[in-house]
Amino acid sequence: MPSNPEFIINFQPVGKRVTVSATDTILNAAQGAGIDIASICGGVGICDSCRIRLVEGELSELTLEEQAVFSDKEIKSGFRLACQVYPCSNLVVEIPPESLTAPQRLQIEGQSQIIEIDPAVIPIELNIPQATINDLRADTIRVRENISNEGIELPINFSQSVLENISPQLRMNDWHVKLAMRRSAVVAILPPHAPLLGLAVDVGTTKLAAYLCNLHSGQILAKAGAMNPQTSFGEDVISRISYSNNVSDGRKILQNRLIETLNQVIQGVCAQVSQNNGDVRPEYIVEAVVVGNTAMHHLFAGLPVYQLGMAPYVPAVSESLVIDADRIGLNIAPGAKIFLPPNIAGYVGADHVAMLLATNLWPSSKTKIALDIGTNTEISLCHDDQLIACSCASGPAFEGAHIKAGMRAAPGAIERVQIIDGELRIQTIDIAAPIGICGSGILDAIACLRHVGALDHRGTFHSTHPSVRDVNNKKEFVLVDHFNSGNGQDIVVTRQDVNEIQLAKGAIRTGIDALLETAGIEADEIEEFIIAGAFGTYINIPSAMAIGMFPSLPIERFQQVGNAAGAGARQMLLSLKHRAKAEEIAKQVSYVELSTYPNFSNLFSKSLFI
Amino acid sequence: MPSNPEFIINFQPVGKRVTVSATDTILNAAQGAGIDIASICGGVGICDSCRIRLVEGELSELTLEEQAVFSDKEIKSGFRLACQVYPCSNLVVEIPPESLTAPQRLQIEGQSQIIEIDPAVIPIELNIPQATINDLRADTIRVRENISNEGIELPINFSQSVLENISPQLRMNDWHVKLAMRRSAVVAILPPHAPLLGLAVDVGTTKLAAYLCNLHSGQILAKAGAMNPQTSFGEDVISRISYSNNVSDGRKILQNRLIETLNQVIQGVCAQVSQNNGDVRPEYIVEAVVVGNTAMHHLFAGLPVYQLGMAPYVPAVSESLVIDADRIGLNIAPGAKIFLPPNIAGYVGADHVAMLLATNLWPSSKTKIALDIGTNTEISLCHDDQLIACSCASGPAFEGAHIKAGMRAAPGAIERVQIIDGELRIQTIDIAAPIGICGSGILDAIACLRHVGALDHRGTFHSTHPSVRDVNNKKEFVLVDHFNSGNGQDIVVTRQDVNEIQLAKGAIRTGIDALLETAGIEADEIEEFIIAGAFGTYINIPSAMAIGMFPSLPIERFQQVGNAAGAGARQMLLSLKHRAKAEEIAKQVSYVELSTYPNFSNLFSKSLFI
User: Fold this and answer.
1) CA-to-CA distance for A508 and A503, rounded, in angstroms?
2) CATH architecture for the domain at B121-190
3) Does B172 contact A at CB distance below 8 Å?
């Protein structure tokens, strides 16, 4: 019995060599070597979290999954999915920093794949007798009278957009069509070969993530991200609300810009899938689910935001909402509906509900916390089968704003600071020369500075530390000097930076503590501590505990689950039961308003210590 | 006991003098004198069919009804409503030709006033507790939870347009609002004092008629007419369908032009009513009903018309339809719905259904015919509780097209030709010098020419008649010579004109005969013969019988009912029961397609004789 050939893989920049069989995927190989490559989808090739880059050697052929995930440019650059490829020779493989996991990563995006498919829109194929001089029934009647035996709730009705094109649609397809039925409503008339597609979108304040799914198989056909174009009208939610209030048609402008970008994304994902899977068009997308924080939700749906920007900050709409795609100009099937799950409060939105759904926070007999860190951090606590939530103004410090050397998570950003052999060691995104610090880096840095005695618990620098220097009577810590930085400048951490992080992490900790206090429990009763969102995925949990952002818990209780809101959106796209569950969750949540929380000042002042 | 003062009224151009009491309206006075002034609304001042003009003397003060009906210009010109005014002195009163009735005028527009009011939209007044820091419910929830005891079908839902403005609406009105509820849907949030209004529109190929009604009282607050602006894109339905097919966005252009004109009409009627009745705005119009022939219906609603223009000429939609006002840009309450009753066939539209509803044609144990004469003439026959309908291509001859001296019904048009003392006598619109012949005039003229022996039964001129002359070997009849015409030209009836009318009236008679034949009955079994529409109101029934357009029946069986389609639209605006009845009527109708009717050629060739 001939044995499989074996090859040596040299993983960089980790610098580990392993010998593997030709039947092992690169993912298996890396995991076997103790290298934690991210694998959000569970290794089925539909996310790109395990992306690696081939530096030297030969890998197995490009799979369809990889073609769907990577752009042409990325493929030319040697990007591959570790879960999809097998070694065909000895290799040098580079693992980009974004593919390295945090301690324990819950495979949420994978989970949404194994839910029962129960979509809002289902197909019916019809062969309709054509109109003749002896059969003068109207086109609608002709459809109605052929659908009667299909097990659909009767009578059917037609969305107005469908009526606007019904006659050419029937004739162009020679009276052989596929109807997209949403309960008893015809939302699209398509050629018989058209697949029914769905779109799940997470509208973040900064970034958009879109997932194109097959509504029948549940498969994610493509995903794509984009910056939220509203960013140029204001970095945060409050400044966008101000824009809406102060500029004539401001709300409409913000909505239109968002929709335009989403339309480009839709065009992009359809083109991408069409390259491999044939005819995939935006008009085959017959249902969408969109999640976002309350302000993004309202701006997307065209709802008033004025009252979101002034006390007492109430949403216009908190129930789940179904809107017409063509009403807001989203270029999918014109008769398609867009489902938006409920909002909980002015600052706890539909994206948090989606996250709660995807993380299975409730119902549960366990005590669990789930949070999504951003400019605003939403936190939910499940205890004793009760669900309470709050929102904390954690500010933009974690996105690099208001930090002297701060930057977004981009190549050259210091994303990790560690103490190795008593020395501070930095790691940058793409292993580029350091040019600044992003959120996870500054968090690490402060934890390390505290650890090495450069900072005290109040956030004051100790002048005695060799890297602490005095500039204009203000102390700062030189993390990277100008000889070693990518831009010839010192990369420093200032007292002001420390203060910003103290305020940000203090706000989050106050939220956590207020929920614990409301539930009448202690922090160590938290059995699961779930951190969602992009930033949450990259932070170093021990650092976050060290500076008191999170309570000190055994590391294994933490889970970093990535874009759980997007995963929740996909679940709701594929399953009506999950929509119902999201509605239940939103009803279940008791909202705790921190600004009127009695013990707020006390908790907040305690939370500032690092 | 002092008797009321008495005054002498001299009615012109009729030339009758009567002595009346000061407590008699001018309408009563005229009727007492045997002058048939039209009184479509039954004398309650809400139509303007009894318009008269004061030439000399003094009348009672202008009523609100009159102010609503007349423009300032008309008021200055001395126009009044005969039913509303009383003499205050001896008078000279002019009765314009349009106020003179045909033999028997059914008071349909009046009838729609006495139906049970059962509108689609009803008001709920709410006082809502405002949002505070201790009551953070979303605006929608705040409305929902206050509505629960109002006897409305729960849960309520909100039209998307309402959601788009709900927050400012609630706050602008200090949380005291009137909701317009359409079943369980909130279609408008209005100030508490706002009346709920409705709009009924009859979209004719040539003319539009709109009625603004109070949905609570049923009162017609104002009515207005306008030309259908689509006329400049094609005089008839077929040419507009061609325009839609041949010009990019043609269908959308035709729709937009129509909507623009309707928006002006809406603005106009609201402004008109506001002058007297306070705050009346387009956004208080919370429901509309629109009727029209199938092509007008489709163009208004944005439905495909391509298939209406080619065999077998089927509608896209024949069921009743509810569309969103803001979707098509109709400037009424943005959340308002527009109800369009069913179409029967490609050439028997929702306006015919409305007419059947208003004339109570079915159900009935009587044998009745109802028709609406136009470029296309729709005819329905009720016999033995069955309803059958057909459509005849009667062409535009009755609108003056293809007739040498033809013109629309405008001042100077010969609208009546009679034989008095053996002499032909003409009557023109506004008693102006004659400049042409309109539909009713040409009909009369041919009947008279036949009567005086100038024409034979085939439509050929007898050269022996002194007024028949030969021009380029073609015979023609001089109706008015150039000395007596208003434009210095002879007004003649040519052989070609006679031929056009033969074809037009033949088409109508063929339709009538085909329906009678289908029902297996003879013409004299028709107990009621109802003629609707503007042209039908002005034709002289004996002339129509004389030339064989209508079967010969006792004159009292005929009724000329005016704009019955508009009256039906109003009934459906004010009563859901009438909508249901319209749907029943449409279902009940069996459509007879004349182009494939076996005996068509035979009937048609017989029908051409005059």
Assistant:
1) 9
2) Roll (3.10)
3) no
